[in-house]
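so my prof wants the structure for this chain in the tokens format not the other one, which i didnt know existed until like an hour ago. anyway here's the sequence
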Amino acid sequence: MPLVDGHRYLPSTAVFLHEILKLAVCLTIAFYEISKTVPRSMPVTALFSTLSGAVFGGDSWKMAIPASLYTIANNLQYIGISNLEPATFQVMYQLKIIVTALFSVAILRQKITGKKWVALLMLMLGVIIVSAPHDAGPLSAGAHAVHLPRSLGGFKNPLGGSVGSHLLKMKKRSATYEGIEEDERRLGLTDSPGLNASMGILAVIGLCVTSGLGGVYFEKVVKESPKPTSLWIRNVQLATYSIFPALFIGVMFIDGETVARDGFFAGYDAVVVLTICVQTFGGIVAAFTIYYADNISKNFALSISLVISSLVSFFFFDFEATGNVGYLRHTF
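here's what i got, hopefully its the right format
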């Protein structure tokens, strides 16, 4: 993703805003839903007390477990998206189907028919084919051909005016790759950081595990709860318990120094904001899908997004099918 004013957005801030937006939407609808079930003469304070009791009463504490897992998964999702091509990310993300199925069998004691296992294995085969290594050029898109040494600042006068003026912009003096990349961006040698495929793949694997486990545990709570609870209330509970780790662990503890230096919204543009809105909508819809169907059905439905994201990548992101994928395309 291209940099905005020399910065890339922080996944931790995006996750926090996603949870804030989700809480605002679900809390508003939950408040309206409860107001329809009480007498019109009830004062607003009593209405808020009823809403608070519904959110924090009963087995609401159980939502802290999937909320924490979802918070971790959301951070890993932004990391994966930032380091993989969109279509590649979606293909790798299909591993979640198998992981979720295993958790459903282990935790929910759910029986999976032979046809479903065959379908799961076919999806796994597709992931292996697309993810297998293929020939690459000598330099990847994100490779840096030249790293400027830290001592060039001392030669700014002999090198002449324009180069010397650029070198004056080199502020980091430590011999770190972070400093080198930042100086390269200051000198205009690169427009955006390269994709880190290894980090992206590890992030997607962690995403599949945490998201799958969180979804199965959420399904267990909502379907085995002794007292029926509105799904809007459940979403409020999830968002409430997710905000604290997202803020204190993600934004303040992990990225606190960067946020203090560059600002909370550094690197934000319309694409990032749209992504946060889509994630919010998707999280709400996923809860309803799990309640009325199950996690496996939800993940099978997500496979449709693989086709859609591939088409979008071909047209808008100049994604080219190479290696095994290109071979299969020409074969069939």
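also thought this was worth mentioning. Confidence is low (pLDDT under 50) at residues 133-180, 327-332.
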